[in-house]
Specification:
globular; about 15% strand; TATA-Binding Protein; six-stranded antiparallel β-sheet; alpha+beta; 14 helices; Alkylbase_DNA_Glycosylase/TA
Length: about 325
Amino acid sequence: MSLIPASRVGGAPAAQTRAWAPDGPLDVRLTVSPLRRGGGDPAFRITPDGAVWRASRTPEGPATLRITGSAAALEGHAWGPGAQWMLAAMPGLLGGLDEGAEFVPRHKVVHRSHRRHPGLRLTRTGLVLEALIPSILEQKVTTAEAYRAWKLLLLQHGERAPGPAPADRMRVMPDARGWARVPSWDWHCAGVDDKRASTVMRAVRLGPRLDALAARDAAQASAGLQTVPGIGPWTAAETLQRSHGATDFVSVGDLHLSHHIGYALTGAQRTDDETMLRLLEPYAGQRHRAARLILLGASGPPRRAPRLAPNPPGRWS
């Protein structure tokens, strides 16, 4: 990797910088959007100038990455001990390792979505624990609840992001010692029950071993993740979609996904996981990509009941 000499952004401390050009269409926001855990995610920002900011805990330490430029010529600025690691991983983050050229749409809705979103690529961060912890928080609760928990825990216990992070509110996920210091009442106030909090702590204690799964293929990494009590196929798939850019891992067990895909492809109001996987069989090896395209290109079944209400914090006492 060749780095451009250190530069300054808005008078901030010097950053390491890298230029990178994708080998085809790239929609940066769409590609990295799965990494954003809600509009208030302290580890992810898109600023009014269009820059994408990410704060991460890399194997070499905390880092902040800022991505600017057009899809044809992108530039990354990075700060912190993990800056060089973040820049080395930038092409994977932006879908540079995604092998999507072999994808062939088999349904009209997939074909339309594929044509409308030529810049969609699958991100690959190389950071397993960073993808795993928020996925654990999302187990069996509403998306809004999970995003709120992630935001509160990072703002209270995360490390301030290195460099000129926007609004001075970006945070790097705590390290193992930081997670261990989260008191029970902060888990409670964030709406995280004992089961999910305990699963997070088990994962954190195995942090280096789990992050080493980034070097394994997705099937091996999935098997490794599921040896941890509290981590099943859904959580493993949600993690590997982000850490590995796992093209074939579908979130089986999701409350809505099977119904959405079934309705888009057959018009059925209710579809179970087994039927969803059968419908996605023509995309074997690329089922996650097909699912993303379906979610982007087709609406789900009409609602037949009110949205699930968030659980009050008192439920966890």
